[in-house]
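Job type: complex structure
Entries:
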Amino acid sequence: MEITLKIARYLPEEENPRRMDTFKLDVDPSERILDLLELVRGFFDETLGFRRSCAHGVCGSDAMRINGKNALACKLLVKDLGTAEITIEPVLGLRVIKDLIVDMEPFFENYRSVLPYFINDEPLPADGKERLQSPQERERFDDTTKCILCAACTTACPVFWSDGKYVGPAAIVNAHRYIFDSRDQAAAERLKILSGQAGAFRCRTAFNCTEACPRDIKITQAIGEVKRAMLSGKLD
Amino acid sequence: MTQTHQFDIVVVGGGGSGLMAAMNASGHARVAVLSKLYAMRSHTGAAQGGIGAALGNLEEDHAEWHTYDTVKGSDYLGDQDAIEFMCEEAIQAVYDLEHMGLPFSRTPDGRIAQRPFGGHTNKVTGKPIRRSCYAADRTGHMILQTLYAQCVKNKINFFDEFQVLDLLMKNGVAAGVVAVELATGELHVFQSKAVIFATGGHGRIWEITSNAYAYTGDGVAITMRQGIPAEDMEFFQFHPTGIYKLGILITEAVRGEGGILFNNKGERFMERYAPHVKELASRDVISRAILSEIKAGNDINGQRYVYLDARPETINKYAEIDGRTRPDGSPYRVTAEEILSKIPDIADFCRTYLGVDPVKQPMPVQPTAHYAMGGIPTDYFGRVVVDDKNTIVPGLYAVGECACVSVHGANRLGTNSLVDLIVFGKHAGINAAEYVAGADMPALPDDPTAYTRQQVSTLQNGDGKEKGAQIGQDLRRMMFEDVGIFRTEQGLSNAVQQVQQLRERYKHVRVADKGKTFNMDLLYNWELGNMLDLALVTAVSAEARTESRGAHAREDYPQRDDVNWLKHTLACFKDGQVNLSYKPVKITKYLPKERVY
């Protein structure tokens, strides 16, 4: 099918760095948006900048705004859009460095601020084997283990756009993953961090994050569970 | 302005093996991890089905059985001392990961869950064994996230989006690397006592592949330019079940959970190729079976694919026929919900890319280029060894898929890639930390960035008559056709000629992007050069090996030839020419015998 692909360009070293480029392409409806970008970069304009690696939605490199909504370019097919007019822009809320490439550092800084790693200083089991965890305990935090840190959620969040001080949904998702892990011991510390000014109570339950998540994580629900844990002091 | 940094150890690549090496070396040495991506974007995250270790959580198992299966799976080309080491260490490595918080799926009594996987068997009964430790169908993702998180905790120095372009050597000793910072286009010199390459594989030289775009063989190409040989490059694994056309991996765990392969006649064709374990034969065997079915006209709709059927009614029907039982002895039966809970990501891929619900419809699959058994030759501490006497290059290490220990020999068993990453990443990290404690900082070569600047300048000043993207496409098609699952003298000699022509065309490429900020055009054209080097070495190594062994299947030499070919290939690449030599396989306990599944 014939499509019109518009790409928001930003080439910082050019005199007029911002422009919108338009490409008319003949493509298969089952192609990924990433395939279109690869086609453009390979054969029409080699200067086009975007990140990508795995090309099937597990590495988290290629979050971008496609027809106004955040998605991974490798997990969205042309036919999913239901239109032959496709516009691609960088995600919002992070500084654009070149074309579709944004500065991820503030995003990762927020991630690092919530102790997003396993903490348990107790002695290991005497037999040296695994710590035990029931399938039910394991299931409790399964959903938030799926996060690939693509930033699609955080950069879809109106609170994150507005003041830049909110840690954002991705950081809370990663805190949730450890807070509700029965083997971890630092839930209280994380909850304390997230009860601060930049924390979970900034969330206004706009649900943009949940809609944007390419891994179908129930993010708003996870944030709600973190808020409840802060209020009740209980993990259930 | 070129900046110079000093570290004890520089790790090139931020996937499972690189992070494992970095973690085990940090605390004892100053370590930097350089990645051309962000470390947590590495391809380890795409691994699905599990990591093999004889924990015996669900049934009797022993490291010795794992060792035997790996030796047999390697078609006796794996070095048995290294395999034994890996399979014994695998058990502790899996516990290490659990202690770092890895969220493994669990058995009812709270232990790490294990599932069957291709080629893993009970040595007494010969039946498939539950050895693969898993976290749903995203085990690699969990390993990568767990290790990355621990690196954040331990404040490892990450240089994200730094592409390493050259290895620095001084007087035969590793002295550091040259890298370009993608955000600025500036070159950086990293001076170090040890360099650990953990750059992953090179499946992107084939058209249909499960591999990430980043898998362009950079580490092997860079070390070859420094005179280090590449070992066993003719052995590249084609995974039997890639999503039709896209090549995206559908884990072997689907078959481990009971999925069945069918041709266009509705026939379970694996009964003919591997009567004992059928769909759980090793990958080379199944990929060849699928291709044979396609060649015989038994593909679905004549479209070069077969069906992988994981509908509960199919799984249950064949589980009954096979007499499959659960650990408690009850008959193995599943529901759609159970299947979906075991393979949620696969279900998602099928829905997203094929519009197929795997518990309601069969999945169209075809073999996909998946894993490099060959690579930079090392011993089992990750130390690079350059010849048949296993001479060590001081300070130089390689781990993970870019390395060839060799534990996978001619064919890797499923789950053993993750075992390899964790075990050898760990031991390379420990060994490198010990090495740097007793080593002085080597001097840098004069003008350390000279070679890199010249390489970049050549790419910027070509006449522009050729496009890199086109050369890449032509390369991938040709490699899939001529250096694929089945090979012949004619195809391979054609491939050698074709790659040489592509290398000539490559000289006419010019980087169109004149900017410094994220000049991906420069990076991708540079990667193309690596892929052309690796393709040539692969084709030449494959043409020379006149036997069939593991993943290297010669139609004109269909038998394994232990008299002449029970040996590793060492390919040296200099001035556009490949020179081959060989080194013996280490055999300790298991004498080669016919390999039947």
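Summary: Chain B touches chain A through 61 residues (CB under 8 Å). Chain B has four domains: 3-46+145-236+370-437, 51-140, 240-365, 450-565.
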